Amino acid sequence: MQIYLVGGAVRDALMARELGLPAPAQADRDWVVVGATPEAMAAEGYEPVGRDFPVFLHPQTREEHALARTERKTAPGYHGFAFHAAPEVTLEQDLARRDLTINAMAVAAEDAAHPESAPLIDPWGGLADLRARTLRHVTEAFAEDPVRILRLARFRARWPGFGIAPETEALMRAMVERGEVDHLVPERVWQELSRGLMEARPGRMVETLRDCGALPRLLPASVRAQVDALPLSLPGETDAHPLFTGAPLPVRWAWLVAGLDGAAQQALGAHWRVPNALQELALLAQRERADWPAPEALDAAEALRRLQRCDALRKPARCRELLQLIDGEALGDADGGATVRRSTRRLERALQALMTFDSAAAVREAQADGAQGEQIGERLHTARLKHLLRCDIWND
């Protein structure tokens, strides 16, 4: 039984050494076991967990260890595979089924603590491609799994300086033409796209899918023309603006679809099964952008009206995402968004002030004075407005 560390952990360690790229703080480690049977693994205390092929949890670390295996295409799409795991399957054969050469490198388990300096097992030229910043498929088996197109697009978003090998680009286009991408279910598409949106350059992901012809096949027909006209980068993305690097997924999704009308946003979100919270933020931003106030018009009364319209007092986190979203979209303004930021900062300070206001006490006071029904709401509104007027946030 021989155990090897493979895949992303080896790749990322070498990227840090060769390219100076930061390694993930806590990367998942993938292990392959050569020359073993399920019975032998169980005898060593490994716990079986795999459903489709033999995967085991290490008795101490609880990390997954998979028996070396080969795979054979049996049906269209990404579920249509038969796997063969046996002691005679070699490490090189196991690595051959992986997507990209940079993901098909390994080191022995005894050297896994420092993979960047360990003797490297690299039968498919992964290190050379890593040094050349090239994403290249390992074998023609890449074409059997359409998810690999999504993964490659996501890797381009993570490492924007990497290019795609010409033969891999041609293979991706051929996969699209054969209809392989048509077998991807929306949930799987969104899983990869949502991860790609959180990478350094999400626009590279969109660009890659568009260039190989996959993007139109992943969209409902009603939105293809609008999506094709969208820009290939999100606000602040190209220069790693701090506003962009700190943006959560709901904000990035809303940035991506900002150029779509409401109906198109809803159609795309429904098609990809985008979580409702993300879709709601994008639609809220579209409404607010159409009626955004100049800073001088944003007095206490207008700030309170707008925050209430956005349901900010019940959903302050969403409101802060909305303000971040609007800030980002304003980066393309003539003044770099300075005017819009004055308004968003005022609203942000007004929200913070209202979050410290004791609304329950104001309600009790109104009730003690005999107020009922709508009168209580009016008294609460007046009390909140007076509280805002006392705050020093209007003379920036």
From TrEMBL:
The keyword Thylakoid does not apply. It holds the Pfam family PolyA_pol_RNAbd. GO terms for biological process: RNA repair; tRNA 3'-terminal CCA addition. The keyword Coiled coil does not apply. GO terms for molecular function: ATP binding; CCA tRNA nucleotidyltransferase activity; hydrolase activity; metal ion binding; RNA binding. Residues 161-221 form the tRNA nucleotidyltransferase/poly(A) polymerase RNA and SrmB- binding domain. InterPro entries: CCA_bact, NT_sf, PolA_pol_head_dom, PolyA_RNA-bd, tRNA_CCA-adding_enzyme. Residues 3-136 form the Poly A polymerase head domain. It comes from the Bacteria. Keywords: ATP-binding, Hydrolase, Magnesium, Metal-binding, Nucleotide-binding, Nucleotidyltransferase, RNA repair, RNA-binding, Transferase, tRNA processing. Its cofactor is Mg(2+). Belongs to the tRNA nucleotidyltransferase/poly(A) polymerase family. This is Metal dependent phosphohydrolase. It comes from Hydrogenophaga intermedia.
